[in-house]
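Deliverable D4.2, example record:
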Amino acid sequence: MLESHALYQELQHHVDHDVAPDDIATTRRDFSYLGHAKVSFMVPDSVKTAVADEVNALLDKAGTRRELQFAETDFSPRRMRNVTRAEIARLGTVINEIYTAEPILRMLSAVAGEPVHPCPYEPEQFVITCLEQDGDTHGWHWDDFAFALVWVIECPPVEHGGFVQCVPGTTWNKQHPEINRALVSRPIYSMELFPGDLYLMRTNTTLHRVVPVHEGRRKIINMGYASASDLTRDFTHETMDQLWATAPGGEV
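Output generated by the structure prediction step:
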């Protein structure tokens, strides 16, 4: 269950009765072509509020400042405060339960056009990030697993940064990432975001970043999910092991 039986019922009722088939069909087309799509319609306001309240509380309790760079992504910067999956699971309730809620997985699978599964690598299941200092960013990168569902808790207007840019149809070679080559070879799409938005991204084949924040804050929780093929692949987790480590570390 989620925070309460009533909250789960609201989520279930919303998915069963309030989500229009046309919304799913349109979003599925966008996702297939662009590698990302807003899916804010799939969650009722009551669930968004419960998740936002827990994100804010956990950032206050367990937020850790990180400033890192990784060779595997051409030394693109990560500057943020975050809360790891382990801390969320230890201190929270709502996020841990909603991550595997059947209505969520059903909606994600409908938009993705294939079964979406919980990530088998626990540190990538969910993480909170907050960009709050001038220049904070989550620089150009890919993710190991296929999907990410991002809940936008707080976000500045686009003139202050914090919006998402992505390049679909790209692949991650960790030994030779060649991010600049990808940026000049394919179109870059940008997505304006607002508090309460959710978006789904095919993160293993969509190069993406958050434009640096210069005023305000960008506060989100990222939920990572796997495709069926991910479940049988071997992965290395160089960037994730450093970025979401209990104690900060890595190249700076």
